[in-house]
Amino acid sequence: xLQLSRILTAAGLVAASVGLTFYGIVESQWETDKxxxxxxxxxxxxxxxxxxxxxxxxxxxxxx
Length: 64
Description:
By secondary structure, the protein is mostly helical. The protein is about 90% helix and about 0% strand.
């Protein structure tokens, strides 16, 4: 369970960062594509949720 929490935390933080970067690239274009914008927002949200779940699992595992 400890390895799963570390993987979730790391993957979630990376996904949120990539989503933020991709959102900045999409929004800086002259004509914004809504599909790409929504995809990057979803990637950010899923990344934040995964990292929060990973942090909670890590804290729960280390206190037991």
